[in-house]
Amino acid sequence: MGFRDELTGAIPGSTAVTVPMLACAYPATVAVYPASGCSILVEYTVDGGTWAAWDNATATAYSVDVLDSAVKALRFSRTAGAVATSKYAVLPERQR
């Protein structure tokens, strides 16, 4: 059984946010909301060691993608900008 509720959070200035995905139900929608003037890098790992950028590259505006298969974790990093109000959301498939 996976987690059922969306996960949301802020992406602070210099610290990447790592979101464990082992309990997630798939498909899962991933979205980032960069603050004005900010860029957000979204990465995933399937083995817990090697990180790969998602298909949307570095986001400078609202961006969304769907994960169709399991990953171990997602990582959100601000790569440009000084505002700490960028956000992320992970919306897993609802289990019935």
Please write out the topology.
Elements: E1 7-11, E2 17-20, E3 28-33, E4 39-45, E5 52-53, E6 63-67, E7 73-80, E8 86-92
Main attributes?
96 residues; mainly beta; Jelly Rolls; four-stranded antiparallel beta sheet; 8 strands; 0% helix
Query: Spatial order of the strands in the main sheet?
Result: 1-8-3-6
Tally of individual helices? 0
Strand percentage lies at over 45%
- CATH topology: the name is Jelly Rolls
Molecular shape? globular
Cα-to-Cα separation, first versus last residue: 10 Å
The domain tally reads: 1
Low-confidence stretches are none
Mean pLDDT: 86
What is the CATH-assigned architecture? Sandwich
Secondary structure category: mainly beta
Number of strands: 8
Q: Rg from C-alpha positions?
A: 13 Å
Largest sheet: 4 strands, antiparallel
Name the helicity range: under 10%
The top level CATH class name: Mainly Beta
**From N to C, what is the helix and strand string?**
EEEEEEEE
Question: How do you describe this structure in short?
Answer:
This protein has strands spanning 7-11, 17-20, 28-33, 39-45, 52-53, 63-67, 73-80, 86-92. 0% of the residues lie in helices and 46% in strands. The protein has 96 residues and is mostly beta strands.
